[in-house]
Amino acid sequence: MDLRNIAIIAHVDHGKTTLVDELLKQSGAFRENQAVAERAMDSNDLERERGITIFAKPTSVEWKGTRINIVDTPGHADFGGEVERILSMVDGVVLLVDAAEGPMPQTKFVTSKALALGLRPIVVLNKVDKPDAEPDRALDEVFDLFASLDANDDQLDFPHLYASGRSGWADAELDGPRKDLHALFNLIINHVPAPRQQAHVNEDFRMLATTLGSDPFVGRILTGRVESGHLKVGQTVQALSRIGQKIEQFRVTKIQAFRGLQMQDIDEAVAGDIVSLAGMQKATVADTICALAVEDAIPAQPIDPPTISVTFGINDSPLAGRDGKKVQSRVIRERLMKEAESNVAIKVTDTPGGEAFEVAGRGELQMGVLIENMRREGFELSISRPQVLMREDDGQKLEPIEEVTIDVDDDYTGAVIEKITGPRKGDLVEMKPAGSGKTRIIAHVPSRGLIGYHGEFLTDTRGTGVLNRVFHGWAPHKGPIPGRRAGVLISMEDGEAVAYALWNLEDRGRMFINPQDKVYQGMIIGEHSRDNDLEVNPLKGKKLTNVRASGSDEAVRLTPPTIFSLEEAIAYINDDELVEVTPNAIRLRKRYLDPHERKRMSKQG
Which of 249, 286, 465, 579 is 20 to 30 A from residue 155's alpha carbon, by CA? Predict the structure, then answer.
């Protein structure tokens, strides 16, 4: 069968997964009466809850005798490691752009990777039926983006379509019939070249592993595109490392291909197709699976280095072990090493002492997803504040800089610019009207300055601003950047918080806990209204007397506390604080728990 391999790339919320839903439906991948969940490709629980794609996943459809393998890629730069591996499996990309917002930072990140590989894009201007859509402006911005990314003449001469993924139509003209996606199917077949690997079908079998999975029945599963030859079930092959070193020899027990949303067992894999293999014990991502006669490994695409690191440690608080079952450092280490094996963008190193592990990755969201997955698996952890990874070049200290794109109401532009160019030491690059009373601000800001800024940004813009960030490059170190200005309220007792005590503490600052929540010495229960830390007693009840007075026994009315999400908690803490993560709770606490140490630290300010 004729083959086409494509990846769909887009910014978060530009409608990529919804469009894939419609491609599957209109190609006949589903039965007429089959019940299919919305955003069917987002199969992971976290993806459904957050409404974002985290893991790159292939699927396939058939159209007029041609099988089209489609890879749905993450739209967030934190998961760029997924994208960099996947692009080596495809021969073309469909770039989906919101006709109102135009190309956004995450679009720029993934598109630069695709253009560097020489892939010719198809541009789909999505959501053109929205009232604020400006498809012509968005198309011009896409061309300017390609030009700025050094696209060649073939890539700049890209075809484009106008579409509405939710309504299930795509047309070459803006005022077309708006009936179905036939124009997109036909353009993919005519514009995207067939896999060049099909010309090497008579050579020895070779395949580059790009994703790693596991199955409780068949064990490790490696997915990739067959570069040459063909492979049958039961055949003996070998795995070579990136440098050509032999890792293992094994018999292939199962070959599966993507057919719609299902994995289907097949007898033979042929050059050009995307398949999954089982039977190996040690082979992993970036290894070459090949016939025994092959000696050279397939070159793997280089992966961008991590930009931040977080320390994962055991939970050593007084409440440790009450929620989770997996609390030992050995178990935590095994889980992190397993993650690093399948996720090439993550690096894990042991710290001195062996009870904590430094995990380096792309961003706070990627770390948050890993911690949330571990939390749901029953782990208890203590997490440090993210640290930005520096590097040295000719004796000069360099730090990562991010390009920040902000869409904000005109009334709040002053407050935003003051924050990012002042204490956070960012450089304003561009500022232009974005329509509907909004302004678009583009700035280059040190990664250090963005840790913990998102919550402050939402407060400054009354929740109406949208901030997107993507790695821009390295620049000389910009000097100290102040962290959180406010101090915290620290519990000085162990027990359950009392409503009356919290009510009395409201003058001191905002609370992070509810009445009846368990607290312990050293736990952070609120934010101080001043810049110093303060020890308080959240267990102090009301003194009882036998005198009754009007109004003295009224019910206590508390201001609702601030409840942090996992990412917000990690971004909020200072260097001398930790986030305690268990399956049922997220708590903040000071690193030190010894009473004498706490007294000494509080005297020092």
Answer: 286
